[in-house]
Amino acid sequence: MRKNKTTHVMSSVFILLFIGVFLVISGRFLYIQGTGEVDGVSLQELADEKRTNSYTLEAERGKILDRNGMTLAYDRATYQISAILDEEYSKGLEEPKHVKDIDKAAAGLAPLLNMEATEIAAILERGKEEGKFQVEFGAQGKDLSQETKEEIEALQIPGINFEKESKRYYPNGTFASHVIGLAQKQDDVLVGRNGIEAEMDNVLSGKNGFISYKRDNFNAKLLNPDEVIEEADNGEDVYLTIDQKIQTLLEDAIAQVDEQYNPERITAVVMDPKTGETLAMSSRPSYNPNKLGEVSNWYNDIISTPFEPGSTMKIFTLAAAIEEGVFNPEETYKSGSYKNDDMNKAINDHHLGGWGPITYKEGIQRSSNVAAAKLVWEKLGTEKFLEYLKAFHFDQPTGIDLPNEQAGHILYDWPIEKVTSSFGQGTTVTPIQQMMAASAIANDGSMVRPYVISKIVDSETGKVVKEKQPETVGSPVSKETAEEVRDILETVITSENGTGHNIYNLNDYSVAGKTGTAQIPDPKNGGYLTGDENYIFSFLGMAPKEDPELVMYVSVKQPELDVNEQGSAPVSFIFKNVMENSLHYLNIDPDQDNSQQVETIDMPDVTGMSANKAKESLQEKGFDVTVLGEGDSIKALSNSPGEQLLPNERIIILTDKPTMPDVNGWSKREVLKLSDLLELEVETMGSGFATKQSIKEGGKVKKKDYLVVEFSPPENQQGGNEGQEDETDGSESPPE
């Protein structure tokens, strides 16, 4: 049979098609064999990946510490608990690996998770009914401490597992919170949100490492696993200039004022004027970074919130006038009100009608707005005064090493604005700008930049990586001017005419300073708010006057005052308590001969004595002595020989086998002494004196135990003196 021509053609086509497909496939195989890649993916790398196990070695975030090495923030191991319910998980095992007895497990876990046993049992029963492999216990089953984990493990409940997680922990709770800041998890990595945590995030965070090795199908490591280990590079430690003891004094005082007066805002900062080191800084409202809740203010008002400061600005008006040689303290002027031809409104003294003809020195003492206005307009000149405002850096941020600093604004367009700037109205500044400017007055004319970071230290070797040095940023006035300004500011406190008389004086130290009672702009109606409480009451002071070791600024906004109580009361309470105690703590020699002065006592050397003998010896000196432990040999003391202490100060003696004392009535400082001595991890809540403790009296304690102490303010706590006239900066509001 003759073949059809079409059959020949189709056969040829199929043969050619087959040959083409064969060549393509063969070529593809040859290509893959030669290159070892498919679609740009290396088959060798893919195989290695499939049979390689890899684990992240998490880097530990660096610590934040105070100037003396007290830890303020660190990574703390926490645990999340879960319970395995699937019986198949225990199949073929001698001991069960799942929760076998639900009621027994619930009864054991309940007190340790702060839950009801019935609630835990219901979670377990529901999970079992729904066929779940395991269940968790909500918020109560998270963030468990090492101590709680160990207590649960001691119950030996089968099926209970823990997952470890690093969490940033702040052992002092609401303590310099706006300075230290907050770090939170983002994509399983701790990231600084504000404060030092944000400012130094790249230094603190470190770099994760990893470990990898090849395995077989059963997840067992191969004989030649090609194991690779890259160690984690932990973050560096950051030491602050903050002094934990001075900060504690400040926090306690602010907390008491906050409790008693319920103000809108409180700000306070303590600085060494010779170096710019910030020793304490705090504000309210604040927050506890361990238990955030609802936070009403994330900003550090001391550096981020400019406001019209009021009469504390007269310090710098006075300094400019003295430096230019136009201030005659004995020259008289007519107080009460002032208006020149270029002003569309008069400005007034806070005392209606003024005090008649008085000297310029008395005008400063009485905080006369007219005195400041006449010095600028008639003596100094507005352009020259503007030069001094800029020389004191009121036109720029300080450059402090904290995030989100905002500079104030010199309002200087209209004639009345140039006048009101002389007494702190219209023009805005921040507390830290005032502190930097005040350092020139305290430091004989040399103005230093404030800072809070002392040094950066390698967390593994202890080697100092970088250390901050004091920085002089200007000399707006001479040494002689600075001394004269301090002399006059001292009379604000000592003179019967002074607005700070018998309010800001200290027992043992002379003070130079200036009060402020600033009006608050009315956002709704324009102008300024009215009413006895609608002011920002403040004080900027330094001590001792001749050679100031500390400068301190305090402001309290809109406190709730009792009838006839002055706005200076809450401000003076903070200033006096913190400044006096801080100077004593720093061993600054008193410069005032005060008949009521409290003598300090040198801590005797009791090393080598028995505990009982040492206790008797210290009690004879007038100290309050607490002995920890049953032994008779002294292991450690809370204070060092030769240290100057106040009468009745608590000294703690550590011996063998210490147990927890009853800390009821102890101050926060004494509790921190105890935690340092026993190396406890302590969290404090509230302020005042201790009322509750998490470790019961007589309980055994060991290093790294977690202690929570609640504090409550003492009753009938008073601050300041009643009946003292405050000054208010009572000019008419300047034009918009």
Characteristic terms for this protein:
seven-stranded mixed β-sheet, 736 residues, Beta-lactamase, 33 strands, five-stranded antiparallel β-sheet, alpha+beta, Penicillin-binding protein 2a (Domain 2), 20 helices
How would you describe this structure to a colleague?
With 736 residues, the protein is α+β, with helices and mostly antiparallel strands. It folds into four domains: 5-50; 55-240, Penicillin-binding protein 2a (Domain 2) (Alpha-Beta Complex); 244-585, DD-peptidase/beta-lactamase superfamily (Beta-lactamase), CATH 3.40.710; 601-712, 2-Layer Sandwich (Trypsin Inhibitor V, Chain A), CATH 3.30.10. Helices cover 30% and strands 22% of the residues. The strands form eleven sheets. Strands 4, 5, 6, 7, 12, 20 and 21 form a seven-stranded mixed beta sheet that branches. A five-stranded antiparallel beta sheet has the order 14-13-25-24-23, sandwiched between helices. Strands 3-10-11 form a three-stranded antiparallel beta sheet. Helix 3 (102-113) crosses helix 4 and helix 9 (244-261) packs antiparallel against helix 18. The longest helix is centred in the first third of the chain and has 31 residues, at 5-35. It is globular and about 130 Å long.
